[in-house]
UniProtKB/TrEMBL annotation, chain A:
SMART domains in alphabetical order: AAA (SM00382)
UniProt xrefs under InterPro entries: AAA+_ATPase (IPR003593), ABC_transporter-like_ATP-bd (IPR003439), ABC_transporter-like_CS (IPR017871), MacB-like_ATP-bd (IPR017911), P-loop_NTPase (IPR027417)
The keyword ATP-binding appears for this protein: yes
Source organism (scientific name): Aquimarina algiphila
Record keywords, A-Z: ATP-binding, Nucleotide-binding, Translocase, Transport
A GO molecular-function annotation: ATP binding
Highest rank taxon of the organism: Bacteria
GO CC terms of this entry: membrane protein complex
Name the UniProt record assigns to this protein: ABC transporter ATP-binding protein
ABC transporter domain boundaries: 5-223
Similarity comment: Belongs to the ABC transporter superfamily. Macrolide exporter (TC 3.A.1.122) family.
Pfam families: ABC_tran
Keyword DNA-binding listed: no
Automatic annotation (TrEMBL), chain B:
Protein's membrane topology: Multi-pass membrane protein
Start and end residues of each ABC3 transporter permease C-terminal domain: 290-413
Family statement drawn from the similarity comment of this UniProt entry: Belongs to the ABC-4 integral membrane protein family. LolC/E subfamily.
Protein name (record): ABC transporter permease
PANTHER family found in the cross-reference section: LIPOPROTEIN-RELEASING SYSTEM TRANSMEMBRANE PROTEIN LOLE (PTHR30489)
Lineage start: Bacteria, Pseudomonadati, Bacteroidota, Flavobacteriia, Flavobacteriales
Amino acid sequence: MKTILEARNINKYFRKPVLFHVLKDINFKVNQGEFASIMGKSGCGKSTLLYILSTMDTGYEGDLYLNTELITGQENEKLSYIRNKHIGFVFQFHYLLSEFSVLENVMLPAKKLAEKSIEEIEYNAIEKLRILNIEHIAKKRASQISGGEKQRVAIARALINNPTIIMGDEPTGNLDSQNSDNVFNIFKQLSEEQGLSLLVVTHDQDFADKTDRIIQMGDGRIIN
Amino acid sequence: MVNKKVILNIAKTHLVTKIKQTATAALGVTFGIGSYITLVCFMTGLNGMLDDLILNQTPHIHIFNEIEPSKKQPTDLYFEFQNTLNIVHSIKPKQSQKRIHNALPIINYLNKDPKVKGAIPQIKEQIFYIAGSIELGGNLTGIDILQEVELFNFKDYVVKGSPQALKNNDNGILLGAGVAEKMSLDIGDRVQVSTIKGDVFPLKIVGLYQSGIADIDNIQSFANVKTVQRILGQAENYITDINVKLFNIEDAIPLAQKIEQQFQLKAIDIKTANAQFETGTTIRNLITYAVSITLLIVAGFGIYNILNMMIYEKMNDIAILKAIGFSGKDVQFIFMSQAMIIGAVGGSLGLLIGFGLSHLIGSLPFETEALPTISTYPINHNPWFYIIGFSFAMISTFLAGYLPSKKAKKIDPVRIIRGQ
Ligand SMILES: Nc1ncnc2c1ncn2[C@@H]1O[C@H](COP(=O)(O)OP(=O)(O)OP(=O)(O)O)[C@@H](O)[C@H]1O
Ligand SMILES: [Mg+2]
């Protein structure tokens, strides 16, 4: 089984306001097509870990590999490209460009990647919105839709470039159980049919139970 | 590039949704550039007019025979007194001719010089105007009228009649406007001219001359060189002054020095004669640029402020863009291009407003005795001003946008995302 993401001996400290060892010797792998969830108490460092894995946070010790390539220490331009092409990120809170339409928000990462024509990108974006049951709001401005809708738009945006791995920080936190199930099914389908890897932080035990593996965190360590 | 298009589109959307701030920033630039264009067109127009006034009618080199005491007195030459201290009291100039000896060969010689556009003769003479019982002192200058027109814009100062009329009339005179008024004479009338020696000649008034300077117009008149020579009873080679116009005014000083040495004549160059004039031009230019740059700096600070504010408001957007794969450079480019768009739009508008305003000023009536050729305010629409103005706008907005955009480039997305 091919390893997509690997963390080796990751340590992170916050130096302000006091020295705080937030991540302690994190080691784990995510394989291709694997759907893993991370659980743990609030404040145990799940989000912090996810920011490091997503290459946005470079202030850590240890080594990070994506597709067996060392990410740690790469230049910012390269990290941006990796985020754009290989990593889809769904935030704990929904983050959309509020002045743009839903469709434009979803299309943006693909436009940046510029591997496809605008028509193709638009077609794909509408397709992703349709899967998430929000096709009808494509033309609305991102500031004029509900919280649950925003979260699904963010998921559609994370999917647009067909990344190798999706990382989610409580991606279903704002959804009712029906839509939460829907998102879970989409994730499951993508991992099974397209070999997409998923690493999702969740507080929802039912959601976690249905995933392939639960990574339990406590006090900055991986417990199992 | 597709990437740049995406980024520009983001920049545009930000600007459009914050249209009020964008407009404020752009108007600052518009104001700065508009006033620069208006000021510089007007000021240089004014400079140009004064240049024309002074430089075009003033010879670049004026050659004449100055009456002055001999620098070497006969005793200095006498070798027996060589080692003694000689004091001669009450030295007076030797009664010398005003005429330039060998004037015609000198004129020929000068006209062959490739630096010289033209060298033309004049005869200056003091006379009296007599009409009925009135007798007025004045100057009569003999000129080669067509060459004066060509080289020194003489036509501008002939307010009635024409230069050609003087050329065609051997007994014609271009009477000073002040003289004509005092003696209530007009074109077609006759005026008697008396030389110092007492000979009286009747001349026909073929035109009126007005320089705009009352002191001159009250005494000065012009006639053909031949006419004046005849009045004075002098031969055809009697010339008192030579006026030289050069192709390049910068040659005036060296050539004047050369002429003085070579011909033992007095040769005054225009730079020495009008030294204070250039100072005025320099100072007006200085004021124009100082004011414009001040306005642009103020506009620049406006842009700086608004971009800073914009970046503060767009922290979230910046974090999202970085999270989904836009690099720091891309983000910097977004804000840089916003600054440049503001600069380009504001600058172009400023050029238009400057163009309109200076046209408006250029159409306002500006009539003054002193400047007979001018009827509206002088405006100089040099395309370079527009190029400079636009570059000014772009450079100042670039500088104003640089620091804020650099800040946006460095924003750490994790801090923003956590901050919510
Ligand atoms: N910038 C920071 N400086 C100092 N301490 C921080 C900083 N950011 C987070 N922390 C601390 O690091 C710890 C881990 O935070 P993190 O956001 O990773 O928790 P989490 O596991 O995601 O919690 P939750 O489930 O509530 O989202 C917390 O105790 C938090 O107070
Ligand atoms: Mg968290």
